[in-house]
Each structure stands twice: as C-alpha cells, then as structure tokens.
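Quick question, first post here. What does this chain look like in 3D?
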Amino acid sequence: MNKIKVAPHVPAEVDIKEIAPNRVEISAWPFEPGFAITMAHPLRRLLLGSSIGYAPISLKIEGVLHEFDSVRGMKEDIAVFIITLKNIKFKIKEELDRAVANYSFSGPKEVKASDLANDEIEVIGDEDTVIATLNEDAELNFTIEFAKGIGYVPSEDLRDSIDSEAIALDAYFTPVRKANYRIENVLVEDSPNFEKIVFEIETDGRITPREAFGNALEVMNKQMQVFGQVFDIDLEATKTKGKSESALKTLLIPIDMLGFSARSSNSLERVGIKYIGELVLMSENEIKSIKNLGKKSLDEIMTTLENHGFGRDYELDGKLRADLIEKIKQLKS
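> Answer (accepted):
Ran it through. Tokens below.
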C-alpha cells in the first residue's frame, strides 16, 4: 500500500558537468512523478526567450545616408558590411545597458572584427572575420551603438530610440544556442518512478550556460510572485525564518548559478565565496568591503539576494546558521 503524503518530495541533488566550452549539463533530482516536465519545460522556454545577450543596434557611417549606399575605396557595399557586423558576437564589458563606440580606419587595410574591441566592447570568437576591405585611398569612420537585451528586436522597433542619422540594425540578443532536456527515472527508497531532469545548455559565449540558467531561474521566480501577491502567499520559502531543509538547500545554491555578471562573479571568486549562503552570512558592509567590488556589483548582489528571499531584513536563526556554516565547511574542505 502506498504511503499517504501531505506534501510532494523536495529535490535535493544538483550536478553540473562541463561538457565543452560554453556547454554544460545540469541535472536535478529526485522529483515526484510528473513534476520534472512541469519544471523543465518552462525553464527551457525561459532559457531560449529571456536570456540576456548583447548586440549592435545602430550604425552611423560618415558620408553614408542609407544601408544601400557605398564608401569610396571600400570593397564591400554597406549592406554587406551590415550583414557581417550583425553576425559578429559582442559583449559590453561594463555593467551597462548601452555603449557607443567610435571607429576610424585608413587604407590599405583589412578591418577585422578584432579591430572593434576596446575598453568597453569585447568581441567573442569572431576576431578574424573581415568586415571591410579598404584600398590605399579609403577612409572609414563610423559609430556603433551596442545594447543589452533579450530575444530578437527588429530594426523598425529601434528607430525611435537611436540617433536619427544612424541606420537601425536588427538586434539578435539571444545568446543560447541550445536548451534541451531529458527526463530519467531514479530510484527513491522502493519506488523507481521518481524523476531526474538533465538539461543540456549551450551558449555562443556572450554569456556562460550557467549565467543563462541562473537568469532563467530568476525570471521564473519573479514571474511567480504575482500569484503570491494575489493570494497572500510567500512563494519564496526561504523568506521564512524557520529551520526547514528547503531553506538550507537554497542557501547552498552555487554562486555561478545565480546569473551574476562576470565582474561580480570574479570579485566573489577571488575571495573564495562559492555559495549564496556565504553572502547571507555577511552584513551588507562586509559584502561592500570585498576587494574590487564596485557599487553596481554590490547593487546586483543585494538585488539577487532580495530576489531569492534574503533581503536586508532577513535573519538566520541560530540552528539554521549553525547548520549552514557546518555544511559550507564540509563542501569546501
């Protein structure tokens, strides 16, 4: 006879495997029968539709009026130049939503994607792509505006938000190349019907697969909060100050699954912080004092803690604090 349950089983195991550069396999288990697909399908949709990426959104070329124009002494037409530009993967280095870069080249020269990298803009994996071929008399002066965003935004939707003299570009922000999952059965006690989700995630390098997955989790969490407000239910179980096992599991989420920017992640990694619980154990002033952690990174960290239920007013009770410290010590030993 089956046991009577008053609540579904809470998954406790997570595993992350690096399969290749920018490709990981993330597994979680054991889920109640039928629960795995309930979690996996919306997460896949969010990975493909809400992952943050970067793209050029406008181009302004000296002496060029429209995308069907040409530049004297440049082999490529402007239309070809634009197509090549849109196929290059860029990333804004600073924690900015937009960045504007000015470029100036004289021939004879092959202008490559690597020539577009500067203090604010990083070129990802396309360094040798030739975007323009200039003869000895040619001069090419242009400005590109880059933006951070999600999904795909057609050029016509961008015209009102860019320089009126610039050419609007279709923006392909989505950095996730692949987001697949499979569901496997796992044995729990005497039942072989529990489930395991195995995600395979690949990105193009503008963000890491872990950042993409962390972002999808954060978006799902925020979307669910609307129901908590309507029904006066706190959907973030970790906001409660109880001694529940689920709270401890949440506190042990790895930092690299939270979707932090590279700057924030690097600052935390340098001081050996690996789990969200280590940040919860610290005061805001202690977090602020982490070396090379700027104000934007601090704001990002505090916002992420708040989104996971660990806001400024959150306090760990004595038992949970002790359990957390001991568990972190074991994991890092």
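Residues 237-243 have pLDDT under 50 and may be disordered.
The two ends are 43 Å apart (CA to CA).
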